[in-house]
Amino acid sequence: MGVPVTVGVVALDPVLEAGTRTTLLACPDLTVCEPGDARVAVLTVDRPGPAELDMVRATRALRHSPAVVLVAGSLASGDVLHALAAGARGLLPRRDADAARLGHAVLAASRDDCTLPPHLLEQLLDRPADARHAAGGWSDGMLSDRERSVLRLLADGHETAEIAQRLAYSPRTVTTVVRDITQRFRLRNRAHAVAYALRAGLL
After folding, report:
1. Which of 58, 91, 124 lies at the terminal end of a domain, its last residue?
2. Exposure of 14 by Cβ count < 10 A (0-12 exposed, 13-18 middle, 19+ buried)?
3. Is residue 131 part of a domain?
4. Which of 84, 104, 110, 131 is most exposed, with the fewest beta carbons within 10 Å of its own?
5. 42 φ, ψ (degrees, to nearest 5)
6. Are residues 97 and 163 in the same domain?
7. For the segment 4-62, what is each residue's pLDDT rounded down to a tens digit?
8. Pair 171, 77 in one domain
9. Rg (CA), the chain
10. Which of 120, 128, 112 is nearest to 82 (CA)?
């Protein structure tokens, strides 16, 4: 076992905060600390509205720029897009946020990987392209086949090592592809890239 990942909890409701902390304390690979000292912050909300999305941005702006995993009482496909664009790297409905799933999402976020519930991913992919097209001018020719393949697997919830194995690339190549996309389109992270590609109808 390696060094535990530090994780903090951010919540407006002290009951939600206490419950989330208790869940995280049951994860052996995690160490719970203050959000400002954490590598990952779990933000627990009822519904990701504008104020909650501002909390995602504010949490990302803390001292160590923690990755954010958003846990919400309810999540719709539109909420997912907005949360990813705000900087979240993982999303879970509260009903699914047991120790195993939440721990997995936190560990994935610490590696800059993104986790989405399968049913929400299906809703995103089932939306018509014109309903998703709000990504600042992305067009079909702006992504190479390799970039599209990597983003599609990211959207499916695969992590860097899994993508490398499936596409017969090295993990470093996968990381480079994602970095090139985020830099070229001035995106925050790989989750933001997936969100924008989905919104543009490119995946």
Report:
1. 124
2. exposed
3. no
4. 131
5. -100, 120
6. no
7. 999 999 998 899 999 999 999 999 999 999 998 999 999 999 988 888 888 998 998 88
8. no
9. 16
10. 120
Q: Which two tokens stand for residue 167?
A: 């596409």
Q: Are residues 108 and 25 in the same domain?
A: yes
Q: What are phi and psi of 88, to 5 degrees?
A: -70, 145
Residue 83 token pair: 């949360």
For 108-147, write each residue's pLDDT tens digit. Answer: 899 888 787 777 666 665 554 444 444 444 554 567 788 8
Please give the pLDDT value at position 131. Answer: 44
Residue 26 sits in which domain range? 5-124
78 and 177, same domain (yes or no): no
List the structure tokens of 166.
């499936």
Question: Is residue 57 in a domain?
Answer: yes
Q: What is the pLDDT of residue 127?
A: 53
Structure tokens at 174: 């996968």
pTM above 0.70, yes or no: no
pLDDT (0 to 100) of residue 201: 66
Residue entry with tokens 């997912």: 80
Residue 99 and residue 156 in one domain? no
Q: Which residue, of 124, 151, 181, is where some domain finishes?
A: 124
Start-to-end CA span in the chain (Å): 36
